[in-house]
Specification:
Six copies of one chain form a homohexamer.
Chain A lengths: L3 H8 L5 E7 L1 H8 L7 H12 L3 E8 L3 H12 L6 E5 L10 H5 L5 E2 L2 H11 L14 E5 L2 E6 L3 H23 L2
Parallel strand pairs in A: 1-2, 1-3, 3-6
Antiparallel strand pairs in A: 4-5, 5-6
Helix pairs in contact in A: 1-7, 3-7, 6-7
The complex binds magnesium ion (4 copies).
Amino acid sequence: MTHAHEKHREHAPKQINFYIITVSTSRYEKLSKKEPVVDESGDIIKQLVIEAGYTVVGYSLVPDDKVKILRAFAEALDDPRVDVIISTGGTGYAPSDQTVETIRPLFDREIEGFSDVFRNISYGDPKVRAAAYLTKASAGIIGKKVIYLLPGSPDAVRLATKELILPEVGHLLYLVRG
Amino acid sequence: MTHAHEKHREHAPKQINFYIITVSTSRYEKLSKKEPVVDESGDIIKQLVIEAGYTVVGYSLVPDDKVKILRAFAEALDDPRVDVIISTGGTGYAPSDQTVETIRPLFDREIEGFSDVFRNISYGDPKVRAAAYLTKASAGIIGKKVIYLLPGSPDAVRLATKELILPEVGHLLYLVRG
Amino acid sequence: MTHAHEKHREHAPKQINFYIITVSTSRYEKLSKKEPVVDESGDIIKQLVIEAGYTVVGYSLVPDDKVKILRAFAEALDDPRVDVIISTGGTGYAPSDQTVETIRPLFDREIEGFSDVFRNISYGDPKVRAAAYLTKASAGIIGKKVIYLLPGSPDAVRLATKELILPEVGHLLYLVRG
Amino acid sequence: MTHAHEKHREHAPKQINFYIITVSTSRYEKLSKKEPVVDESGDIIKQLVIEAGYTVVGYSLVPDDKVKILRAFAEALDDPRVDVIISTGGTGYAPSDQTVETIRPLFDREIEGFSDVFRNISYGDPKVRAAAYLTKASAGIIGKKVIYLLPGSPDAVRLATKELILPEVGHLLYLVRG
Amino acid sequence: MTHAHEKHREHAPKQINFYIITVSTSRYEKLSKKEPVVDESGDIIKQLVIEAGYTVVGYSLVPDDKVKILRAFAEALDDPRVDVIISTGGTGYAPSDQTVETIRPLFDREIEGFSDVFRNISYGDPKVRAAAYLTKASAGIIGKKVIYLLPGSPDAVRLATKELILPEVGHLLYLVRG
Amino acid sequence: MTHAHEKHREHAPKQINFYIITVSTSRYEKLSKKEPVVDESGDIIKQLVIEAGYTVVGYSLVPDDKVKILRAFAEALDDPRVDVIISTGGTGYAPSDQTVETIRPLFDREIEGFSDVFRNISYGDPKVRAAAYLTKASAGIIGKKVIYLLPGSPDAVRLATKELILPEVGHLLYLVRG
Ligand SMILES: [Mg+2]
Ligand SMILES: [Mg+2]
Ligand SMILES: [Mg+2]
Ligand SMILES: [Mg+2]
């Protein structure tokens, strides 16, 4: 008997377009001053997406500011090519962290399990351990698009993208599109 | 004795910049087809704002679509000149009405009383009467900006702008700016 | 110029079917003991609905009990003939009052203005006055059906049905049906 | 026929104990510096309560600070003599206003109608008019106690206490005590 | 020293009655056409419940429809014999999935940990892995009854029932009954 | 490359003051009758905090009562020496369990991941296993203070304090203080 998850995976779209948003005040300020910006986490997501055979159709870099974050997501959501948005940064407990507080209320449906499954596989990493409970990394659905809000750390971004996003995003888009 | 509200009004800013957003699928489609568009409600707001000695610094026309609405508000919020955003349309109970559902979750603080005071003065209008309870017209604060979400009807827009928004918006901006 | 509300009223369905639910522990207990039950508020709603040219297709009497209330509403919602459900009772602040707490979380959309407009016209009645703020009378939409949760008192039921429900329910059904 | 509200009023307790909390940073700072403090709004509530034949059993003055507000309410709630708590101040839209944001989430049940009925009678006062929509004055129930969160202005406090609280608080306590 | 959980388990009721609800549009349509229906997941729950020495007192099969789901739960909740309700189906992210969205708002208390513990043991199954984050399987309490909302897949149902529900449901009923 | 979590840990404050609150009706009643009280879980927290080089600056014992719980937390929050509050007890599903229901609505930000990470490491303990899903143990931030709401069992308290709280609380305070 074929397992249900496997059957769904067969129906997953082969062509998926991603939009990457990096939320980082320090990098944004460098960019504003035309200084060179290294965005390691953004780059990791792009590379993993491409290695998986998917496409990156857009990217933006914004500071930890509710309105700038909102605008970047609104533009990505309004781009008809975009299937999936992944952000990195702003998911923690510093007062400046605003990504989840800004975007989560917009979800038509929150993919509630993304937060806890991500934290629990993070907990399993000896370099992270208890620090795993300090992230609000989240996912949700707006219209027919899927949004992932990842932490800023390169390790966290690699883990989430490789272990959780890429294996299931096609399956999820298939479900969401009804 | 000077009344507290009167004292606050003295401190109100004299120069206030408004951004108007009309939410109307039919007008948006005409615009997309380059047909002439009459936006009576948007025009009423603009005229009343100008007559009050304030300034209109921006305007956009969007359809009843969550993402388009979100984007228009995000751009207005991100415009440093803007103090107040007023929208018209999409506050009722047709399935297409999405303005309040989209923007209210973004309020840092909802100005809860706007909805009920507006409905109750509408109820007093013999042309509206019980239909007054069928609007979700709302107001709220994001950052230091004030947002009003008005119905689409010209009469409703005139009533809200003249009787509720213009008399208190300066006072409110003074409070919100702390 | 024809007013928007008037145009909508023209499109309102002429044939509307109501289901009445009386929530009253004392009457339910009498019914259970096969004693005669006078349900003045339920009777007022029925009579006003019929006088307006509409139809009552169902009625049930339940105690102030979350599960019994839920079941009565579920059966009314599942009856394909029913367009509008009106309940009477259980909208106050006694610990036994559970109607609003039970049904409101099920609304796809709450018709938020019903509560405040109803309270404010009640406040205008010299027999009610400040007691008006002690009701949670509410309305909302589930699927394509409209639900009104009215207080238990005959005067309140008459006021809400005559002044708010009957004048707009056709208009509202027209909107809700998209 | 005796009206239901009148019957309930007959059952209302005759002896009711009030605790008054004034929320005002400026007055609190004066008090801390042992300067003389005039608390006009607090005094109005006390006087009206006493004139109505009820008793004031406690009073505290706190600044617009979440934790100080919380502590004052916790102490009043924990005082077995107290039936009703009335606060004045901190219900507006300045960033410092925190009374409603702090206490409302603690309500077992919010008395939702207090906010809109109060705003609508305030709107009727020509000195207040549209400023009425700028208050979040609220009421609610915790355990068997009733809490009213009033604005800071003497006029608002007098209106709410005379027109809404004193006429119904006995009735409400009777209901709440089940 | 005896562990607290072990002591509670001693007090657990020995006789527990379950009601099973299968939420599946395809099976419901077959049933409506009097075609033979195989409900593998429903059958697994029944069998595991009986093997554990408990009793199945009711069963219903409903489509992925808010009102039908609501009615089935309302009838199960209103059946005085029922201690525990387990549903299977409708917990995912297809637009048709409505079980959790319908029933969760009715919980007096959500058993929040059921969702994340279930997802994390699912993640440990190599056939499920990252797909684990795509379920909203949930549990909660209404009155003195416990409700579990399980996914539709036979493997998920077997895992949840064997590893989470049956080991603790007696303990939980003992707690909930106070 | 130094890992981000390690860098944050370097910035963590060395001196941290804890306030312990035990929520237990049975112990509170003994205390009220001046009988000897053994508070094993409270003692475990104190000992672990001290062994970690931190300080316990306050302690209180309250029954499972919303107002008493609220008051104890309000006093601890209002104590300027206190950095972290840890409570034990009242996080389960007995009707008397009220700690989480009382304090969670006061959080400025909930540290959402604490609940699920704690449950999942509890699940890994063979003495707890599925009982892990029956706790609502939670954490959150009020102002610049961090609050942990732990279960009443000594084993749970030891696990949470050793594995989750002590390793990250300095890091978290550093983040929260901005
Ligand atoms: Mg960051
Ligand atoms: Mg009643
Ligand atoms: Mg003030
Ligand atoms: Mg306990």
